[in-house]
Design goal:
- The longest helix has 21 residues.
- Helix 3 links the parallel strand 2 and strand 3.
- The protein is of the alpha/beta class.
- Strands 3-2-4-1-5-6-7 form a 7-stranded mixed β-sheet.
- Helix 6 packs across helix 7.
- About 40% of the residues lie in helices and about 15% in strands.
- The protein is built from 8 helices and 7 strands; from the N terminus they run βααβαβαααβααβββ.
- The protein has one domain: Phosphoglycerate mutase-like (Rossmann fold).
- Pfam families: His_Phos_1.
- InterPro entries: His_Pase_superF_clade-1, His_PPase_superfam, PG/BPGM_mutase_AS, Phosphogly_mut1.
- It catalyses: (2R)-2-phosphoglycerate = (2R)-3-phosphoglycerate.
- Belongs to the phosphoglycerate mutase family. BPG-dependent PGAM subfamily.
- Keywords: Gluconeogenesis, Glycolysis, Isomerase.
């Protein structure tokens, strides 16, 4: 039985372009973001992938990326499950601020700590650990069982909510997770064993990597 999970970070959003902390705000994709989503669909089509199930967040940039991918695969009518558990990390008081403006307000070191530490949240927001605590139980309860049934499954979400899943899938430490780069619109394909460990994975933004 083939158990395949594909993770895709949404294409570039309007606030990505402006270098703003986005979090749970709901900007749309830029023109480049649309092109990235379409290209993700083309890459998956070239891999011969056909989806049986799809999940995304409650935010427009992920939903639109998801639909553009499915359109490119000729699967525009595939039912898609939307849940806020897959939303981006909540940046609290940083939301909507330009990253340079935030550094001027709170200082370079404090903003760096909020962005790059695992367990220190920005004021009124979530740490990466908080995001893991929100996202991972949903994955285990709702998404992983579908994958283990042998259904090829697409999850289109956000940089930090996907890192929460990748931490478990790739067995990363918090430090390794913080260094894990996710490119917009670049699918990651996981082949999953029956015991939910990863047999292998391939990042379509780069080269194949074997699971450790």
């Amino acid at each position: 039985m083939q158990r395949r999970l594909v993770l895709v970070r949404h294409g570039q959003s309007e606030w990505n372009l402006k270098n703003l902390f986005t979090g749970w705000k709901d900007p749309d994709l830029t023109e480049r973001g649309v092109e990235e989503a379409i290209e993700a669909g083309r890459r998956l089509k070239a891999e011969g992938i056909v989806f049986d199930a799809a999940f995304t967040s409650k935010l427009k940039r992920a939903q639109r990326t998801n639909q553009l991918i499915l359109n490119e695969l000729g699967q525009r009518t595939l039912p898609v499950v939307e849940d806020e558990a897959l939303n981006e990390r909540d940046y609290g008081e940083l939301t909507g601020l330009n990253k340079d403006e935030a550094r001027k307000t709170w200082g370079e070191q404090k903003v760096l700590m909020w962005r790059r530490s695992y367990d220190v949240p920005p004021p009124g927001g979530e740490s990466l650990r908080d995001t893991v605590a929100r996202t991972l139980p949903y994955f285990v309860r709702e998404i992983l069982p579908v994958v283990l049934q042998g259904k090829t499954t697409l999850v289109t979400a956000h940089g930090n909510s996907l890192r929460a899943l990748i931490m478990t899938l790739e067995r990363l430490t918090p430090d390794e997770l913080l260094r894990r780069e996710l490119f917009t619109g670049a699918p990651i394909i996981y082949e999953v064993n029956a015991d939910s460990t990863i047999e292998s994975w391939k990042d379509l933004a780069g080269s194949p990597a074997a699971a450790s």
